[in-house]
Amino acid sequence: MPEIPTAPVLLGGEPGSFPHSVLAERHPAIIRQVREAFPYGPEQHRALDALLESCTEGVIEPLPVDAHDRDRWTAWGLAGYAGRCWFDVPWLWSESYFYRLLLEAVGYFGPGPWQGIDPFRPAKLAELDAQDTDEELAALDALEGVPDAERSAALLHGSLWGNRADLGFRLSAASTDARATAADATQDTPGLVADDSEALWSLLPPSGTGTLCLVADNAGRELVPDLLLVADLLDHGRAAQVVLHVKPYPYYVSDATTADVVDAVRRLTAAPGAAHGYGRRLWSAMADGRLTVRAHPFSCAPLPYAEMPGDLREEFATGTLTVFKGDLNYRRLVGDRLWPPTTSFADVTAYFPGPVAALRTLKSEVVTGLDARTEAALDTAEDRRWRTGGTHALIQVAGA
Ligand SMILES: O=P(O)(O)OC[C@H]1O[C@](O)(CO)[C@@H](O)[C@@H]1O
């Protein structure tokens, strides 16, 4: 029997560590940002005050008794974690539950007039409306007439590096330039620390029969290039069907929901030039069922994908390829553990029920599948910053 590798689960308790800074600094900053984004009433301000106190100095509070998803969270570990310090439980769990309680505080789950109002929507829309987005869309015109393989590769890289568009990440990266280009990687270290793109293309041949499951990450300037890639794969027969997995409710600040997919497709259809054509084709693909959107509750679970429920496992099993976008999905795919970076990506994703790929910029310390030379070069050039700075990326594939 093959040995299943393991490594310590990331916790948030060590002062000075990256997870600790997320819990101690990023979460209070997110509460501030949300408070300033809407003219909330006194009840919501009081609830946000209470959450701030709880998540910085208090303990994990249970959900209200009438919460619609109390049983689900109990099954996801709340029963064992309620009453414990936020910093002492798995980092993935405390981050995830923080977003659940933030939505509770602003009345997102209702009942009441604030039900369904996404507290992160103003930031998401600002990003979609930014001039940078216009420029990125205008650049699509130059791809018209380019050979298929070249255009598809450009769109794959657009989707990959689009993962830097993460509004939560930028709250902590404000002092650095989180939008810096791939050329930021020093001369001795590659922008792409692993590149299995050939294996990825081999799983999506232009035969027109495959189903791609794309597990989306951020809305706005990540989702737009994801959708452009989807349109390209459908247009050129590399996928007959695409299932886009989004979050059932706002999460990790900028994670995409169905409303964000609608905004992104509308943004494309309203654009001039080639972008408009991509938007129209996506619209048609949604209308005739080639592109469907899925919002499974487990997409917002505080658990690794190794613990996914049977229905989701069956769904992924039917896909020709499942692509996980972004840092958080990567953490959940490989388990949120401090792996030695040379741990095999194939070994840690061996539980997955079909071919699987990760497209991700590195924004947390979780990484697998590097070769020893690359790891050593990165450590020498950048100490540990390469793991969290968002300036490096990877394309990894298993089960090809
Ligand atoms: O949007 P992404 O790429 O999933 O990144 C989420 C970010 O949030 C974190 O979980 C920290 O809050 C990091 O792992 C990552 O930087």
From TrEMBL:
Could you list this entry's UniProt keywords, alphabetically sorted. Answer: Hydrolase, Manganese, Metal-binding
Q: Which reaction does it catalyse?
A: beta-D-fructose 1-phosphate + H2O = D-fructose + phosphate; beta-D-fructose 6-phosphate = dihydroxyacetone + D-glyceraldehyde 3-phosphate
> Which Pfam family name is an example for this entry?
ARMT1-like_dom
Show where the Damage-control phosphatase ARMT1-like metal-binding domain sits: 23-374
UniProt cofactor(s): Mn(2+)
**One BP annotation, GO:** DNA damage response
GO molecular function ontology, one term from the record: phosphatase activity
Q: What is stated as this protein's family in its record?
A: Belongs to the damage-control phosphatase family. Sugar phosphate phosphatase III subfamily.
State the protein's name: Damage-control phosphatase ARMT1-like metal-binding domain-containing protein
**Native source organism of the sequence:** Streptomyces spiralis
